[in-house]
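Narrative of activities, Objective 1.

The group set out to show that a structural description can be obtained from nothing but a protein's sequence at a throughput compatible with the screening campaign. Below is one input-output pair from the validation batch, recorded exactly as produced.
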Amino acid sequence: MTRVPIIGGNWKMNLDLSGASQLASGVRNQLGSHRAADVVIFPPAPFLAPVFSKIRGSAVALGAQDVHQQEKGAFTGAMSASMVTSVGCTWTLVGHSERRSVFGDSDGVVADKLGAALKAGLNPILCIGETLQERQSGRMNDVLGRQLDVLSQHRSGALVIAYEPVWAIGTGVTATPKQAQDTHHWIRGRVASLCGSSFAKAVRIQYGGSVKPANAAEILACPDIDGALVGGASLDARSFFRIVMAGAVRVGSYR
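Output recorded for this entry:
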């Protein structure tokens, strides 16, 4: 089974309006009319609408970095899934490690957000990952398994999983290709036990954690790694495009 690579660019809390608009145009122009993979960019919330105006009709899709679990209400500073779809989003991140660790999103909150995203017709990327302490203490599989248990409540063919070892996010440290592949293989097996083998074979699993042009090809060549969720390197259109092409070359999907 050939799974189309998916490359996401998470801009996090970076750029201003001018910079975001320029970067969106740069990513669009780098890709041109070709579709090298499924490509999604995740700008900060204030820039979603203006970024969409730059990529509308192109091969680049728009995603939100987070959505609230409720549709509406007294939740100052939050945005619902239907709000982001109304400004052009077709994707959203759910459960990113920074949402879990910095903002306190529990597994229950992540489950509710995943359900809200699917209900609104968004394609969610469910982010999972362990800390260095959890890996070194032998608890990695327990942590990842617990984070994947949400799939027993919410599953969809639109869903993508992003494995992001917390110890590799923004640190410059990257899991070795063997470490990444072994973990992705384990994740696929865990998904099979929760959702069945057919779902597990079809679901795309990205790797995230200091992915850059220099290491992308080796990581994306691994059989169970179906793309990348890119942080810092996605803030440069040329670097991001090189990562997109590394994913596309893996399965000859440049078209």
